[in-house]
Structures are given as structure tokens and as C-alpha cells.
TrEMBL record:
GO terms for biological process: lysine biosynthetic process via diaminopimelate. It catalyses: N-succinyl-(2S,6S)-2,6-diaminopimelate + H2O = (2S,6S)-2,6-diaminopimelate + succinate. The keyword Zinc applies. Residues 196-319 form the Peptidase M20 dimerisation domain. Belongs to the peptidase M20A family. Its cofactor is Co(2+); Zn(2+). Signal peptide: none annotated. GO terms for molecular function: metal ion binding; succinyl-diaminopimelate desuccinylase activity. Its EC number is 3.5.1.18. Keywords: Cobalt, Hydrolase, Metal-binding, Zinc. Pathway: Amino-acid biosynthesis; L-lysine biosynthesis via DAP pathway; LL-2,6-diaminopimelate from (S)-tetrahydrodipicolinate (succinylase route): step 3/3. This is Probable succinyl-diaminopimelate desuccinylase. It is an enzyme of class 3 (hydrolase).
Length: 424
């Protein structure tokens, strides 16, 4: 039974390559959120003729949704021959900006040996293609299966998922009475099961000063210097304290098993010049300086304590540093998520890896959050994991790629999981 299913998948190697290339060639950059309707239409055109009921869902009112950049999502469902559980494969269709340093066309989907290159190949259109192939092969092999299978293609994971999975979860698409198992084919490795992710707290800190002529800075109050004091305290106190904290979660890579903080951006003083502007700068003391911080915290930490730690540091500076004043604004918060190792979907995927690949699966957790957070926190469905092809360190980099063999192997694991969950 399994050998025949595996043969079906391996025979469709060329189809898998072509599907992955088609997905890559739809540039779904986020921001701003381009071409979501087009990529949903591409997937619908493939699945609808095969008997899937396809529903397009726009996340109207979600952050980023607009008439110019609507947040479109697709949910495709196929029913089995008799009642049973529903297994849902979820993949995000958006990709990050291209950036510099590419040696290949980011949206050309070039095949070179066993690799397909392009933005989103690894994260995570290769995973979407592998899941689609696995489901199609399973349905062809076992048309009498019990239950139902869903495939969703969702927007905005790269910017938090609020126009995608979060919206679907609020609308009940992941309610435990209609979906029982969720697999998200994120690139965490074909021999690993990702149980969850760290938490995140994002904020902006702005220091205040007083504008004055740049030739007489003593008449003003430089907000950039005040921000320098904040950064100095980060370096001397906060970063060492975070590095000393370790989690029991199996987060990869090892450096992410500590608490971390990244300074995403800094802005102060004169605005950036537009391209081609040859004017000279004005001479002013900056009266505003702002940084954006990205604080990733451990399941052992409370988000309230994460925020309080920053506030305490800033308040101490305010007490000690003359004329120091600041504004702190929270941008977003995400709590950690962790599926138990004995959850049904974990047990079955672990067994499927053993049977399909001949090796024992490792447990990992992601350093950054992904859409499991919404399925868990909003949808209240804990039986959710990430499993898919690709290597995490290739996500978001120049010359991103996914291996064809890895996609085929992951498809075999996903198809075998369906056998274990939906066959009598």
C-alpha cells in the first residue's frame, strides 16, 4: 500500500518541479502584498477539477488590506467516502522582499540540478507544492479514504499573518470541530517536526530632544545622543542578561535558545534624501530619534516581564540622565506556542518519517513565530505542527533555493501521514 503511494509521488517529479516553478513565478512580495488573488487562482485552477471545493476568502479590514492590495486566501476541501477526521495543510503564499546579492532571477524559478532557485522557494512555496502533490497522490491511491482533507493558501505570514490565518481562525475555519490535524509545511527540515516557536514583542522607543541650530548644539537637546545612551545600556546590561537565559524548548539554531533582541531600524535627525536629491543638509540638532526593537522571548518568560524590563531600563535612564525623556509604543505581541510531543499529529508524522525515510524524527522549535500561533491562540486547536522541505537558514537570503529531492521526500512523509490518519 505505502510502496504504491510512494511510487505515485516519485513518478510525479516533473509535475512537482513545474508546480513549484509556477508558484514562484507569481511574485507575491509582502509588503505590499502583491498578486494574492493570482496565486490563489493558480492553486484553485489545479485543485477544483480534481474535486476540491474551493473558497476564496478576503480578509477585509485586516492590517494591510486595501482595494489596491486585497488580502486574498484560498481554502480547498475534498471529502472522503465516509466520516472521519479532517487533516489541514496550510501554507503562506507571501514572500519577503528580494534584497541585494542575487546571481539568479528571483522570480525565474531556475532549475539547476536538484535545486530550484527563487524568492519563496524554500519559504515556503516548495512546501505548498509538496503538500499539494502528497494530497493528490493520496486521493488517487485511496479514493475511499475517511474524513476530509483541506489545503489552504494564505496571505501575510511574513508580516504577522493577520490578513491570512488569523482572519480564517476568527471566522472559524480552524475550529476543532471541523479541523482536527494541521500541518504547516514550513522549511524546518524533512527529518524534523517543529512543535512551536518563541514569543515576540515588538515596540518603538522614541527619545525626545529640543531643536536648535547645529552650530550651537548647547542651545538644544540632541535626541540622538539620548538614544545613544539607550543603546549603551542595551549593550552593557540588557544583551548580556538576555544571552544568559536559556530555554528547554528545542529551538534551532542553538543561538536562538537564548532570549534575543534585534534593533530593526533607527531614525533620527534629517530625513533620508530621495534618490537624485543633490541638496545639502540643514543644520539642526535632532529633536526626535526612534528605534524599532524586536524582542524574542522564551516560553519560560512572561510577556509582561519582557515589557517591564524595557520600561525599567528607560525609567532608570530618565532618573539618572539630565533632560532624558522618551515614549514607548508597543507594536505587536505574540505568545510562544508549543504542541505536546504526544499530540496525535506529532505521533503520526513521527511514525511516517520513520516509515518513509528510515530514520527517527527530531523535535525542533522555530526561532521566529509562524502561523501556528493563530491556529493555537485564536482557533484553539493545539494539534498543529510545522513539517516541510527546505532549510531554515535559506529563508529570506539571496539565491534562495529548495531541493527537489527534499520536496519529494517530504511529500512521501505527508502522504504516509494521511494514510495513518484517514485510512481504517
Amino acid at each position: 500500500m505505502t510502496d504504491s503511494l510512494f511510487a505515485r509521488i516519485l513518478d510525479r517529479r516533473d509535475d512537482l518541479i513545474a508546480l513549484t516553478q509556477d508558484l514562484i513565478r507569481v511574485p507575491t512580495r509582502n509588503p505590499p502584498g502583491e498578486n494574492y488573488r493570482d496565486i490563489c487562482a493558480l492553486i484553485e485552477a489545479r485543485l477544483a477539477p480534481r474535486g476540491f471545493a474551493c473558497t476564496l476568502v478576503r480578509a477585509e479590514g485586516a492590517p494591510g488590506d486595501s482595494d489596491r492590495y486585497p488580502r486574498w486566501n484560498l481554502v480547498a476541501r475534498i471529502e472522503g467516502a465516509r466520516p472521519g477526521a479532517c487533516v489541514h495543510f496550510n501554507g503562506h503564499t507571501d514572500v519577503v522582499t528580494v534584497g541585494e546579492g542575487w546571481t539568479r532571477d528571483p522570480f525565474g524559478a531556475e532549475l539547476d540540478g536538484d535545486r530550484i532557485y527563487g524568492r519563496g522557494t524554500c519559504d515556503m512555496k516548495g512546501g505548498i507544492a509538496a503538500a499539494i502533490l502528497a494530497v493528490e497522490a493520496f486521493v488517487d491511491e485511496h479514493p475511499e479514504f475517511a474524513g476530509a482533507i483541506e489545503i489552504s493558501a494564505t496571505a501575510d505570514e511574513e508580516s504577522g499573518g493577520y490578513g491570512g490565518v488569523a482572519h480564517l481562525a476568527r471566522e472559524g475555519w480552524f475550529a476543532p470541530d471541523r479541523v482536527q490535524h494541521v500541518i504547516i509545511p514550513e522549511p524546518l527540515g524533512k527529518d524534523s517536526i517543529c512543535l512551536g516557536h518563541r514569543g515576540g514583542w515588538w515596540a518603538e522607543i522614541e527619545t525626545h530632544g529640543r531643536i536648535a541650530h547645529g552650530s550651537m548644539p548647547f542651545l538644544g537637546d540632541c535626541a540622538v545622543r539620548h538614544m545613544g545612551a539607550v543603546l549603551q545600556r542595551f549593550e552593557e546590561d540588557l544583551f548580556p542578561a538576555l544571552a544568559a537565559r536559556r530555554t528547554d524548548m528545542p529551538v534551532i539554531p542553538d543561538g536562538a535558545r537564548a532570549s534575543t533582541l534585534n534593533i530593526n531600524a533607527i531614525h533620527g535627525g534629517e530625513p533620508e534624501r530621495a534618490a537624485g536629491d543633490t541638496g545639502l543638509p540643514a543644520h539642526n540638532v535632532p529633536d526626535r530619534c526612534r528605534i524599532q526593537i524586536d524582542r524574542r522571548f522564551l516560553i519560560e518568560e512572561r510577556v509582561e516581564d519582557v515589557e517591564a524590563e524595557i520600561v525599567t531600563l528607560l525609567e532608570d535612564l530618565k532618573a539618572r540622565r539630565p533632560r532624558f525623556d522618551y515614549t514607548l509604543r508597543e507594536v505587536n505581541r505574540v505568545l510562544p506556542s508549543m504542541t505536546p510531543e504526544d499530540a496525535p499529529v506529532v505521533r503520526e508524522v513521527r511514525a511516517a518519517i520513520r516509515e518513509a525515510l528510515g530514520q527517527e524524527a527530531g523535535f525542533v522549535a522555530s526561532p521566529g513565530s509562524y502561523d501556528q500561533k493563530h491556529i493555537d491562540r485564536i482557533g484553539t486547536l493545539r494539534n498543529c505542527i510545522a513539517y516541510g522541505p527546505g532549510r531554515l537558514e535559506l529563508a529570506h537570503v539571496p539565491d534562495e533555493w529548495v531541493g527537489v529531492t527534499d520536496m519529494l521526500d517530504s511529500a512521501r512523509v505527508m502522504a504516509r501521514t494521511l494514510e495513518r490518519l484517514l485510512l481504517p
